[in-house]
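Ticket #4471: structure export looks truncated?
Reporter: QA, pipeline team
Priority: medium

Steps to reproduce: submit the single chain below to the structure queue and open the exported record.
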Amino acid sequence: MSKKSRKNLLTHRFAVGHSEGKVARPWYLTRSAYPAGGLCCHVNDLLRYGRFHLGDGTFNGKRLISTELLALCHTPQFSIWGKESIEYKTADLEPYVGKYDRGFAEIELGILGGQMIGQQVQRRGFPDQHTPSPPPPPPATLMPTGEDQFVVTDGPMARAEVHFIRRADGSIGCLRLGMRAYQRQ
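Actual output as written to the record:
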């Protein structure tokens, strides 16, 4: 397969990103940011996946998972302390402000209007370093859900959990988002 055909492979006969009614090229594929939901497949496979989730845990007559586990897949996995909103002070957010890096991507956190705002920037494209970086997604709001825990409340990463991991001395060492760790700068 030529390099040119590999570049276009994912934009033919697959469910892909669109912009203004046309296939987005380059297609911003954030596999590392969406480990639980970034499906890349043929539309027929996507329909099979949907039918499986609407069913009882079987596929072609064979049980793959229990009905209890399937129900758990459709259940929210965390709550924000069971409340609509959480009261916090801007000073509570200040220890988290800064830049977090993981090589070819970074997240910068700041406070705007009393809320934690995050901006992710990719430094290189997919699938290799020669592919241009995609445009950054819009800034997102992070709401605290517990000690060193936040949830993204808007944008393409809405409902994603963010955890801060502390060093032995108690300082913040990294941010974990989508099973990826970003080192604090």
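Status: closed, not a bug. The export was complete when the record was re-opened. Leaving a note from the reviewer for reference: The chain is about 15% helix and 30% strand.
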